[in-house]
Structures are given as structure tokens and as C-alpha cells.
């Protein structure tokens, strides 16, 4: 479940980022600092986007940075980040990105239910409103726990 893969320590609000690479690095930093991924995992995300395009931009304003488990995922987790100012990732339909949900998947299956819950959240206007006005990570985590 989503509430099992995220916590207040994995939330970053109003990040300053000049470009999509910096947005990925800063949003993934929460996972790195909490032992969920390695530096190599972040590099793998950026390399994949450079090679295959902005496939991680999954809907309007939302990116789901992730890489293969073997690229440096230590433990399954989802980081939640909002950007102070949206940045372009090169996805004409869904740019600019303001919300990043950085996924660390330790295997190919254990995170799928959490992703399904996240997709449901991304259809809720009240979730985006919360992301825009939250002042503390606990506000977002409490919302997720009370679903």
C-alpha cells in the first residue's frame, strides 16, 4: 500500500530546481538520504530520460522518476516532491512538471498496489490542492493514511 512506501522523511516541499535533471536529483535525494536508493539509481533515472525521452512524465504536471531495481534500488519506497516553480521535461502534452513521485522499486512487483493507489490519488483535485498548499510533510502523509 502507498502508506507503507512513503513517510514524512520522504517528502520534500517547494524545491528550487533550474531544470528537469536538478528536479530529479533533488526529489530523489529524500530516498538517497533515507537509504532507499544509491547515487547510481539517480544517475540511471537521468540517463534513461536522456536516452529515451521524458517517458516519466505520466500526466499533466506529474513525473514518476524511477529506474530498474538493479540500478541501485535498496528498498521499495515512494518520495513525494513539489517544485517551487514548474520545470519542462520535454513532454509537450504534460509539461511543465510541478509534482514528482520518485519511485524506488526493489523488485518488479511489490510496489504495484502502491502505484495503483497513487494513480487514484492523481485523479483527485483535492490531492493537488493539498500538494500546492501543504506547509509540512505530515499534512500529505496524514492525507494518504486517511484514504
UniProtKB/TrEMBL annotation:
The phosphoenolpyruvate-dependent sugar phosphotransferase system (sugar PTS), a major carbohydrate active transport system, catalyzes the phosphorylation of incoming sugar substrates concomitantly with their translocation across the cell membrane. The enzyme II UlaABC PTS system is involved in ascorbate transport. GO terms for cellular component: cytoplasm. Keywords: Cytoplasm, Kinase, Phosphoprotein, Phosphotransferase system, Transferase, Transport. Residues 4-147 form the PTS EIIA type-2 domain. The keyword Nucleotidyltransferase does not apply. The lineage of its organism: Bacteria, Bacillati, Bacillota, Negativicutes, Selenomonadales. It is found in: Cytoplasm. It comes from the Bacteria. It holds the Pfam family PTS_EIIA_2. This is Ascorbate-specific PTS system EIIA component. One of its GO terms (molecular function) is kinase activity. One of its GO terms (biological process) is phosphoenolpyruvate-dependent sugar phosphotransferase system. Its main location: cytoplasm. InterPro entries: Ascorbate-PTS_EIIA_comp (IPR051351), PTrfase/Anion_transptr (IPR016152), PTS_EIIA_type-2_dom (IPR002178).
Amino acid at each position: 500500500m502507498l502508506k507503507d512506501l512513503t513517510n514524512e522523511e520522504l517528502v520534500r516541499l517547494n524545491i528550487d530546481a533550474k531544470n528537469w535533471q536538478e528536479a530529479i536529483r533533488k526529489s530523489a535525494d529524500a530516498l538517497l538520504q533515507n537509504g532507499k536508493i544509491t547515487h547510481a539509481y539517480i544517475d540511471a533515472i537521468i540517463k534513461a530520460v536522456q536516452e529515451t525521452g521524458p517517458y516519466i512524465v505520466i500526466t499533466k504536471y506529474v513525473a514518476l522518476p524511477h529506474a530498474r531495481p538493479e540500478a541501485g534500488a535498496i528498498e521499495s519506497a515512494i518520495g513525494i516532491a513539489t517544485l517551487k516553480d514548474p520545470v519542462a521535461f520535454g513532454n509537450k502534452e504534460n509539461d511543465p512538471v510541478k509534482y514528482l513521485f520518485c519511485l524506488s522499486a526493489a523488485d518488479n512487483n511489490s510496489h504495484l498496489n502502491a502505484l495503483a493507489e497513487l494513480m487514484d490519488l492523481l485523479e483527485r483535485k483535492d490531492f493537488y490542492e493539498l500538494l500546492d498548499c501543504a506547509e509540512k510533510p505530515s499534512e500529505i502523509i496524514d492525507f494518504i493514511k486517511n484514504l
